[in-house]
Request: fold
Amino acid sequence: MDQDETDRSKEAGEQSAVRRTPSQRRSRERVERMLAAAVTLIERDGSDAMRMSDVAETAGVSIGSLYQYFPDKMAIVRSLAERCMIEGRSCVETELAKVQTCDELLQSWSSLVDSYYQMFLTRPVMRDIWCATQSDCRLRELELEDSRINARVLADVMARLKPDGERAQLEAVAFLIMQLCEATMRLAVSVDAAEGERLVETYKRMGISALRAALAR
Amino acid sequence: MDQDETDRSKEAGEQSAVRRTPSQRRSRERVERMLAAAVTLIERDGSDAMRMSDVAETAGVSIGSLYQYFPDKMAIVRSLAERCMIEGRSCVETELAKVQTCDELLQSWSSLVDSYYQMFLTRPVMRDIWCATQSDCRLRELELEDSRINARVLADVMARLKPDGERAQLEAVAFLIMQLCEATMRLAVSVDAAEGERLVETYKRMGISALRAALAR
DNA sequence: GTGTAATGTGAGCCATCCTCATATTTGTTA
DNA sequence: TAACAAATATGAGGATGGCTCACATTACAC
Reply:
């Protein structure tokens, strides 16, 4: 069984945020408690300062239990990050699905950026996770993959609006826009609120003109 | 003396990459050896995997000597980062000093981006340092300050080309362009060469249109 | 040459991640 | 319900690596 997990994680590259899949309700609840404890601690001190022993204590489980489900410390952060990404992708898909015109696209995109920024402001844990992303190879890959998926969704819409556009080109623009969005968020939450807001506005203007340019004749 | 250092670092926020300033030639050379050793090890395994004991051994000094000059492991990375930033700022200043027209600005900026990208490709240590930036508060501040300085230089040129432009607005654009440049580099070196190059191109196009828009009537 | 300040050393302290042998709980079958 | 296997839980302690500190050595000033 353990063997099984290891193999799967090796080939799939994904999964493996958990080492053993919790099948009974008891263990599923405990895993939730562990993740919740991690959020609490990360919001208080940051993920670097978070100690595994504290996570265990806060969650009311033993160190051993923690390691039953998470192969290492970073796996906890990855797990939280994955949830954020899934949530984010769902927002992007929902918002972009209804787009019919270029103006609507710019509008939808702009509002996505706004709500994303709000998420960063209201959920401090996100900022930490997105920083941790940079120092963890696996997490970086996850984020890249996430951006690629979102970029594909955006490129789909763009392709609908400009059927003769070169697909690779559209996707490159969309991918960069997505990644620069992450970068802008990381930046905006590092400076004071007023400057942060202005940066997000500036980014939106850049993105809009990039989208316009990519969709133009 | 030690007291002095501590105080200065506390108030200045800067400096303090070194704990004790090497005044004799012998110690200055040793510090250089330590930094060189760190570069070697970071290029091989990354700064996370770099062990202080290895740095000491590679540099041919004792652990204690290392800690005479660097208060902690991150201080070494910070020290390397500062050197890169100083070098980068000098490039930016030199290149932008000769700009007289809008077209020349776009040309100079574009060539700066290109050479910066080349630096990332040819000096793997830079990628690692720029990643470490994200997880270190002090280093993040250094990078922000670096971007601000470069943004001011760029905004100066923009102001020359558009004397009636609102300064704060120009600087916001310039600052974001600088930061997104960092982000694009980090991204471009994380993907394969072909995609990396296309991303840099896309970024340049976005930057150019942002600069054009900011300078337009 | 003598004294002082600067510099160098490395054994070992300590925090923290993570393992593993063992104990407990749950679900299943007869 | 008893008996058994599979799943789950535990925490002492091994391993690693950052960092300290008491002491040794070297450079420099007079």
Q: What stands out?
A: Residues 1, 20, 22-24, 26-27, 30, 61-65, 68 of chain A lie near DNA strand D (CB under 10 Å from a C1'). The CA atoms of residues 18 and 69 of chain A lie 5 Å apart.
